[in-house]
């Protein structure tokens, strides 16, 4: 059976392969030819000859129908995991004759889904057929595929001809960004320093928030991390720090320990967490960047999302930067022992090694438990030991 399939596939892609109706007609033609030889009846020879002529014309026309057909793929817009990709393919007929009964198959990567096909009744000479379809996505990633197949059984469906055409496809599926109302991991950065400041508003160098110029009443939209709680309690209303430079030249880096051998499900959670924290930090007007072991430091929304879409565990083993605070995302509890000053960590529970016994006691962080939902855990208060 495997040999038969291989032969049939070779015939389809290099010449033309008889369809079911073609094999039936081949059998009938041979029978009429045998009967004609046996009986020497001329009409049997005529029927046999006409049948073989139909088979020959069908095979020739099927092969010729696919000549002069050009496929062009339009760029695919990135989407977030769970949304649908919009895939657009243009089939152009360069010949002076119309093409009919055409089938187009987009050969997607197996991890993205099964091949998708479209049946085209006819394309007029020097005209194009625009095929647009939507394909669901479930998992983030950068997907590439290289082939579209054209097939036809014209004119009578007796022979089937198939020709692959090179058509590069690249689809980027971004990780999900969870909506957060609060996140102590980000909100409490620099809070310890602010509690040591002068409540009358004298200049103070903050770890990540710059120089305090004065204190003013809270306005809607102000980041909660800028609230000066001691002064707010004294005046009975919220007061926020007004800064000369929001970040004071400092930066915060969200770093994924992508060189470690993660469990697949936990790594996907880490990527979602990185995307969520990145955009939440931007919302809080922090200067934030991303770091992975393969790419190093990345900045810019599109670049960060593309990096997170493409990252995988077991990447190149590189050390994270040590010149600024990190939010370190890891499953390896031992890696929290050498973080830069002012860092935070997010540690995924390891079933084989109790996380609480080996984590960094100098900096607070969050322990993520796999059996619980991710979003509520990012709202948790920081854990210190």
Automatic annotation (TrEMBL):
**Membrane-crossing segments per the record:** 20-37, 43-63
InterPro entries reported for this sequence: DUF58
Write the record's keywords in alphabetical order, separated by commas: Membrane, Transmembrane, Transmembrane helix
Annotated ranges, domain DUF58: 215-292
Keyword Membrane annotated: yes
Write down a Pfam family by its short name: DUF58
- The protein's name is DUF58 domain-containing protein
Q: State the organism named in the record.
A: Cuspidothrix issatschenkoi CHARLIE-1
Q: Tell me the classification of the organism that encodes this protein.
A: Bacteria, Bacillati, Cyanobacteriota, Cyanophyceae, Nostocales
């Amino acid at each position: 059976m495997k040999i038969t399939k291989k032969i049939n596939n070779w015939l389809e892609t290099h010449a033309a392969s008889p369809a079911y109706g073609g094999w039936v007609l081949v059998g009938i033609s041979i029978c009429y030819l045998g009967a004609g030889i046996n009986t020497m009846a001329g009409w049997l020879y005529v029927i046999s000859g006409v049948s073989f002529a139909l088979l020959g014309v069908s095979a020739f026309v099927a092969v010729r129908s696919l000549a002069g057909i050009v496929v062009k793929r339009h760029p695919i817009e990135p989407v977030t995991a769970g949304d649908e990709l919009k895939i657009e393919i243009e089939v152009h007929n360069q010949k002076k004759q119309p093409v009919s009964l055409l089938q187009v198959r987009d050969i997607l990567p197996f991890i993205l889904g099964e091949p998708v096909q479209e049946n085209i009744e006819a394309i007029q000479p020097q005209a194009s057929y625009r095929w647009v379809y939507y394909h669901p996505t479930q998992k983030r990633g950068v997907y590439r595929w290289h082939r579209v197949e054209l097939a036809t059984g014209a004119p009578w469906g007796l022979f089937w001809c198939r020709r692959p055409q090179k058509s590069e496809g690249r689809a980027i599926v971004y990780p999900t960004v969870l909506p957060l109302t609060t996140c102590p991991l980000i909100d409490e950065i620099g809070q310890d320093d602010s509690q040591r400041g002068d409540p009358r508003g004298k200049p103070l160098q903050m770890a990540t928030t710059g120089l305090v110029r004065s204190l003013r009443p809270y306005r809607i939209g102000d980041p909660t991390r800028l609230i000066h709680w001691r002064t707010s309690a004294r005046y009975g209303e919220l007061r926020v720090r007004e800064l000369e430079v929001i970040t004071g030249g400092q930066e915060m880096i969200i770093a994924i320990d992508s060189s470690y051998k993660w469990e697949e499900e936990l790594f996907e959670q880490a990527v979602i967490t990185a995307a969520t924290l990145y955009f939440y930090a931007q919302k809080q007007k922090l200067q934030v960047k991303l770091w992975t072991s393969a790419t190093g430091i990345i900045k810019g929304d599109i670049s960060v999302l593309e990096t997170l879409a493409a990252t995988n565990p077991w990447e190149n083993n590189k050390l994270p930067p040590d010149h600024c605070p990190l939010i370190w995302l890891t499953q390896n509890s031992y890696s929290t022992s050498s973080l830069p000053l002012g860092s935070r960590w997010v540690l995924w529970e390891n079933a084989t090694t109790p996380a609480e016994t080996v984590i960094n006691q100098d900096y607070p962080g969050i322990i993520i438990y796999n059996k619980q939902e991710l979003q509520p855990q990012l709202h948790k208060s920081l854990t210190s030991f």
